[in-house]
């Protein structure tokens, strides 16, 4: 089949090019090279700001192109005449990983780069790149009349005769084959010249108008592309550093929609409190990370030398499953009573039975295509029986036949081998007599592992008790967060604002609404009919765009009453997408008078000929990273626009092995039970393991892979109890998946190419105190693709440059993060199975910004632990000055004398000292990733009242007396902080008073001292003064006084402004 996919390079224009023709101008054209496919634009004569507006097409095969290594090279040349040849004007290299599909392309400007150090290059070029999946765009663009100066054949002849260029940054065309479409360009140019010979002047104007429209284009919205990251095979260890095996396949699938899940209260059962482990009652080692000695990956023993069983799952333990795929049946007999057939298949293995759905359409050619999985550990039979039955409304179901398999004869299949082809099997008599009956069934039976493609969608024998909608809620799934944009609305001004009461001037403000987000401008300070604001309102929106931007102009009639003057609704797909700080075009919009709309008749609406209007500048910001999580635990720093993404620097692989010692989260059949599943989040990709039913030590053994774009990011894993399994009690609308615990791992703390296999304790702070709810066992490997790229990232900002050029305020960041979190939770809650809101909120730490006395104490002691090092240094210097250790004091005197006599040794000594400290600390480096620290979190000594305050809702739901008590306690704490801040301010004001003449005598003494010091420092050598001052400071205690020193007494007597406070 012919591949119609094309890469389209839209060459728009260029600006401020370097003159090359000796007359202050140039005749530029553009040459594009993609995978040895060369194509060029037409030549624009005598222009340093050329406009091409021409599309170039290249063959594109997704299976061949490596997104991370391939580049598109765009070069600009000056075509010389009359001597054939060309001169280099600049080039741009664009990584293919930044290319988007048609509909997402955005006009971009690139600075032209040099080819060598001696090249003289300046200017910019405007381009658009995208991938087209159809041939509708592949008509050759109609060129404007510009006849080329020389043909490729003439250029080759002149080059062969020995013509060479004198400049070091120019080239000469060598052959007609230099360009893949040179002859086509000449034919197109000549054809366009004949067709538009009389429109030369008008054509240039049309091009300029087209470019101006392109700068303010309206990009249509399209469904957000979802990218599935493929798991890599570890069969060849040499492929570890092969970036081609780490690519991502963009899939154009629309996110499924569903009803929003209501949230309700889900509290721990009272019986479960006894099962929780408290910190004070257990061994402290239970709250630490433990190493697990497991043989994973290449360390697995290979019992079969001819077959490898690891597959792509080399970070988890191998688990074998018996898979049975029931495809379809044919030629089934009709029922004896109804004359029809309602067939279904029952798969039986020992005590386990699995059923397919039955058909009510009285068909004899049913198709199920359903997979059943039986874990090998629980197989208690040597035969597998597959029964075909007829569903009967009354009485017992009829047996139509069966197929029996011997488990010893079942083949083994390990990915990446192709799936086992299903086969037709004739049905035998169900009584076991060996007699063949009418009908056949298509089956595939094999022994595989959890790496099999059928594993996520299979019916598992250990979840046979789940029915109905609960079957979908126990499967493992991969989710992708929606593509988030910042919508910036710049409200400039309005005109002809007429209030309802025309006897007064309006107090006007603008209110903007997007979905559940509402923002307002300030009231115009001047009462006028033409108000001016010039304020920015920023919202968070997600693709595909579903909401509209509603702008309303309102009048503040009273402090408790606002009157709408006019409003307008604008779709998101009409706004321009901006990738940098360049301003976008503003537009005037007519406001619909409030009260007139679609429901009114045409005659009524035509009466409103006059309308107010508002001046807006609106754009979608693609240069920012929309933060839906705290910057302290950020897992992705890429901007919204895919065109600005960097290449990945590594690969993160996590094997979710299982959990151990989980606490019962609910009561089932009179005993404690937990239906646990694990969720991992990194970047835009969320993964969810399947739910293990009724197990306090579940084993998942599932492995997932993420691309890493920045090593200074955090991956988060959480365990939850599934409360939506289809039963009446658990599937109610008020039920919420209970949180069991969470683990965070910062990638920068991991060594490259090393497998970490550890058991992390799950610690949860509850109203009763710190509790351990179990252990999470995982294996982690961070593989770096290039050490140079890792080092390069450490020297660049963490967030995209727009966060630093035009930063948001702290209040804006908090508000936008909360809105982004709500959008992500809503969209993921519409998937199947849904990733519920309580899960997303817990993984994104939605309540991390709320007040907590415990967190305040923890942060205070964190600051004190940092300052403790400086305090220890000061104490050591004090001991040296007091000669507490005479040997140390003598050595310090000798070192001080050497540094004073040779000051050029000061900085080398300091850096050498830090170098040896780093080497000394290498032996005590951490051997495992850091985890939650109870002492650092101040969770082991927190009181019950402080915990109750931390778990209180916002706004509070406690009694007035309790709130008043907590408020008084907060006032006492704030009073002590207020005193410390006042002391710091007083010290700074005393320094300012030295020269302010607030105390005339103190200022006079200080300026006289400065005059004497300047004379002494000028007359005496600096080394002598430094040596004398240092020896005086380090003098023996016999020559010291216990009273404060003279400078200290003088400084403490200086005035501050504290006496001016009320």
UniProtKB/TrEMBL annotation:
Output compositional bias ranges, type Basic and acidic residues. Answer: 195-219
Highest rank taxon of the organism: Eukaryota
- Bilayer topology annotation: Multi-pass membrane protein
Residues crossing the lipid bilayer are 905-922, 1005-1034
Show where the C2 domain sits.
1-110, 303-425, 466-589, 633-760
Give the SUPFAM superfamilies listed for this entry.
C2 domain (Calcium/lipid-binding domain, CaLB)
The record's listing under SMART domains reads: C2
Return the Polar residues bias intervals.
238-258, 269-280
Short name of any one Pfam family annotated for the protein: PRT_C
Subcellular locations according to the entry: Membrane
Task: Give Gene Ontology CC terms.
Answer: membrane
Q: Which portions of the sequence form the region Disordered? A: 144-288
Q: Which UniProt keywords apply?
A: Calcium, Membrane, Metal-binding, Repeat, Transmembrane, Transmembrane helix
- Tell me one GO molecular function of this protein: metal ion binding
Similarity-based family = Belongs to the MCTP family.
**Name of the protein in its database record:** C2 domain-containing protein
Q: What is the lineage of its organism?
A: Eukaryota, Viridiplantae, Streptophyta, Embryophyta, Tracheophyta
């Amino acid at each position: 089949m012919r591949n119609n996919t094309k890469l389209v390079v839209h060459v728009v224009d260029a600006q401020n090019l370097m003159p090359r023709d000796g007359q202050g101008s140039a005749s530029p054209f553009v040459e594009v090279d993609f995978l040895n496919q060369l194509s060029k634009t037409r030549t624009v004569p005598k222009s340093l700001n050329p406009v091409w507006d021409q599309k170039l097409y290249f063959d594109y095969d997704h299976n061949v192109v490596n997104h991370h290594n391939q580049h598109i090279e765009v070069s600009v040349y000056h075509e010389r005449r009359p001597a054939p040849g060309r001169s280099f004007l600049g080039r741009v290299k664009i990584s293919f990983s930044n290319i988007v599909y048609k509909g997402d392309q955005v006009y971009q400007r690139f600075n032209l780069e040099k080819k060598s150090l001696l090249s003289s290059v300046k200017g910019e070029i405007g381009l658009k790149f995208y991938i087209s999946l159809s041939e509708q765009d592949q008509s050759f663009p109609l060129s404007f009349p510009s006849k080329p100066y020389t043909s490729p054949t003439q250029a080759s002849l002149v080059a062969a005769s020995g013509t060479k260029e004198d400049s070091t940054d120019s080239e000469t065309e060598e052959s007609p084959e230099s360009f893949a479409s040179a002859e086509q360009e000449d034919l197109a140019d000549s054809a366009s010249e004949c067709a538009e010979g009389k429109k030369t002047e008008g054509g240039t104007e049309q091009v300029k108008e087209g470019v101006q429209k392109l700068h303010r284009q309206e990009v249509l919205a399209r469904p957000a592309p979802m990218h599935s990251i493929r798991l890599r095979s570890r069969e060849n260890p040499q492929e570890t550093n092969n970036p081609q095996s780490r690519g991502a396949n963009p899939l154009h699938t629309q996110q499924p929609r569903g009803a929003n899940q209501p949230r309700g209260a889900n509290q721990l059962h009272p019986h479960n409190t006894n099962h929780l482990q408290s910190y004070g009652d257990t061994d402290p080692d239970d709250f630490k990370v433990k190493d697990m000695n497991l043989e994973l990956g290449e360390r697995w023993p290979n019992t079969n030398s001819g077959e490898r069983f690891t597959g792509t799952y080399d970070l988890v333990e191998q688990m074998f499953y018996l898979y049975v795929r029931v495809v379809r049946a044919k030629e089934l007999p009709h029922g004896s009573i109804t004359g029809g057939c309602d067939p279904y298949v029952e798969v039986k293995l020992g005590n386990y039975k699995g059923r397919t759905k039955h058909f009510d359409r009285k068909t004899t050619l049913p198709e199920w295509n359903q997979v059943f999985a039986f874990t090998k550990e629980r197989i208690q039979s040597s035969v597998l029986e597959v029964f075909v039955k007829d569903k009967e409304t009354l009485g017992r179901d009829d047996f139509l036949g069966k197929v029996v398999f011997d488990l010893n004869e079942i083949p083994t299949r390990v990915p990446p081998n192709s799936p086992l082809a299903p086969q037709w099997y004739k049905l035998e008599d169900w009584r076991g007599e060996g007699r063949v009956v009418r009908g056949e069934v298509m089956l595939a039976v094999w022994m595989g592992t959890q790496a099999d493609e059928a594993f996520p969608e299979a019916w598992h024998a250990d979840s046979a008790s789940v029915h109905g909608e609960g079957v979908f809620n126990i499967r493992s799934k991969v989710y992708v967060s929606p593509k988030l944009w910042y919508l910036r609305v710049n409200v400039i001004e309005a005109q002809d604002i007429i209030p309802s009461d025309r006897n007064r001037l309006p107090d006007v403000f603008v209110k903007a609404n997007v979905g559940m987000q509402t923002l307002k401008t300030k009231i115009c300070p001047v009462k006028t009919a033409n108000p001016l604001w010039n304020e920015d309102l920023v919202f968070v929106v997600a693709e595909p765009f579903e909401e509209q931007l509603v702008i309303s102009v309102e009048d503040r009639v009273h402090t408790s009453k606002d009157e709408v003057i006019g409003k307008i609704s604008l779709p998101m797909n009409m706004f321009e997408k901006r990738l940098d700080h360049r301003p976008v075009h503003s537009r005037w919009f007519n406001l619909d008078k409030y009260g007139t709309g679609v429901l009114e008749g045409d005659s009524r609406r035509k009466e409103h000929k006059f309308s107010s209007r508002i001046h807006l500048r609106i754009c979608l910001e693609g240069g920012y990273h929309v933060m839906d999580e705290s910057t302290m635990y950020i897992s992705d720093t890429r901007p919204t626009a895919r065109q600005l993404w960097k290449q990945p620097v590594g690969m993160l692989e996590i094997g979710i092995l299982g959990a151990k010692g989980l606490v019962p989260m609910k009561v089932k059949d009179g005993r404690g039970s937990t239906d646990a599943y694990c969720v991992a989040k990194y970047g835009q990709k969320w993964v969810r393991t399947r739910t293990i039913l009724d197990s306090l030590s579940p084993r998942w053994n599932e492995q997932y892979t993420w691309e890493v774009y920045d090593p200074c990011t955090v991956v988060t894993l959480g365990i939850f109890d599934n409360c939506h399994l289809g039963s009446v009690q658990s599937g109610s609308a008020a039920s919420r998946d209970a949180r069991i615990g969470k683990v965070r791992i910062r990638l920068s703390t991991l060594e490259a190419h090393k497998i970490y296999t550890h058991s992390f304790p799950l610690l949860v702070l509850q109203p009763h105190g710190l509790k351990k709810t179990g252990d999470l066992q995982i294996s982690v490997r961070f593989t770096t693709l290039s050490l140079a790229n890792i080092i390069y990232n450490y020297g660049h900002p963490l967030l995209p440059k727009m966060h630093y050029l035009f930063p948001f305020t702290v209040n804006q960041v908090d508000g936008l993060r909360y809105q982004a979190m709500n959008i992500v939770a809503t969209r993921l809650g519409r998937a199947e199975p849904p990733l519920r809101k309580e899960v997303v909120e817990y993984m994104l730490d939605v309540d991390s910004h709320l007040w907590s006395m415990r967190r305040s104490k923890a942060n205070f002691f964190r600051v004190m632990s940092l300052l403790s090092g400086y305090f220890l240094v000061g104490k050591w210097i004090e001991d040296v000055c007091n000669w507490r250790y005479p040997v140390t004091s003598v050595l310090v005197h000798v070192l001080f004398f050497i540094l004073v006599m040779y000051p050029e040794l000061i900085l080398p000594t300091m850096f050498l000292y830090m170098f040896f400290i780093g080497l000394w600390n290498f032996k005590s480096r951490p051997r495992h990733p850091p985890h939650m620290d109870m002492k650092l979190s101040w969770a082991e000594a927190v009181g019950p009242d402080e915990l109750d305050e931390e778990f209180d809702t916002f706004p509070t739901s406690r009694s007035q007396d309790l709130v008043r008590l907590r408020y008084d306690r907060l006032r006492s704490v704030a009073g002590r902080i207020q005193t410390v801040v006042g002391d710091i301010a007083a010290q700074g004001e005393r320094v300012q008073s030295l020269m302010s003449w607030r105390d005339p005598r103190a200022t006079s003494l200080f300026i006289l001292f400065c005059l004497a010091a300047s004379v002494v420092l000028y007359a005496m050598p600096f080394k002598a003064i430094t040596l004398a001052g240092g020896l005086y400071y380090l003098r023996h205690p016999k020559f010291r006084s216990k009273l404060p020193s003279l400078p200290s007494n003088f400084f403490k007597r200086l005035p501050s402004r504290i006496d001016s406070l009320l």
